[in-house]
Design brief:
By secondary structure, the chain is mainly beta. Helices cover 10% and strands 51% of the residues. It has two helices and eleven strands. It is globular and about 60 Å long. About 4% of the residues have low confidence.
């Protein structure tokens, strides 16, 4: 060939096939120190959403119903304690009950990220060894968190896309529904929990 280009380069200066693209991500905007301090203070200061969460503190009864295709419904009851931690920045929730005739222990944390304007929740329990993380916005009109994430199917060892709604019915009643995406691409409601504040 009468190609006088140097091997390994192109005229447009893009990397040749087989080379590593070393393009750097766009730089973050440079902020002055006062703006940075203001942003950090806003990020760490409990907001009106955190004050709303604090109203959920206390002792609750939880009645859960679990659903599985082709299987009968399974019920579970737990005592639940909600407690704001880290000076009102997060809510810790502890479950103590039974499931399938065995003791059941679970713990979740709920955060509201002031920068993202999103709720983030974590969940662990003694019926598994992983952690479920969900994230999503608050809908003020329906008083509902709309969360998405992934959950592990302990029977197949496969992760599934999951969606959760957590609705504040009134000061003494809450309801959670969880849905998963089945292999056929259809959404299936796998769990409902009704929370009632203890008197």
């Amino acid at each position: 060939c009468n190609n006088d280009k140097k091997e390994g380069k192109k005229e447009d200066n893009t990397p040749a096939t087989g080379t590593t693209d070393t393009k750097k991500p766009a730089a973050m905007p440079e902020l002055d120190s006062a703006t940075k301090a203001k942003n950090w203070e806003m990020y760490m200061t409990p907001s009106d959403v955190h004050k709303m969460m604090a109203k959920w503190d206390g002792n609750w009864d939880a009645e859960a119903t679990f659903y599985a295709p082709g299987k009968p419904e399974m019920k579970s009851k737990s005592s639940v304690v909600n407690k704001m931690i880290f000076d009102g920045r997060y809510q810790e929730t502890s479950f103590n009950g039974e499931m399938m005739g065995m003791p059941f222990l679970g713990k979740s944390t709920t955060a509201y990220d002031n920068h993202k304007k999103q709720f983030i929740t974590t969940w662990i329990d003694n019926m598994g060894s992983g952690m479920m993380i969900m994230q999503g916005p608050w809908d003020e009109a329906s008083k509902t968190m709309n969360l998405t994430g992934k959950t592990m199917d302990p029977e197949t060892g496969q992760e599934m896309d999951a969606r959760e709604t957590f609705k504040i019915v009134d000061d003494n009643t809450q309801e959670m529904d969880m849905f998963v995406m089945m292999p056929d691409g259809k959404e299936f409601k796998m769990m409902n929990i009704k929370f009632t504040r203890k008197k």
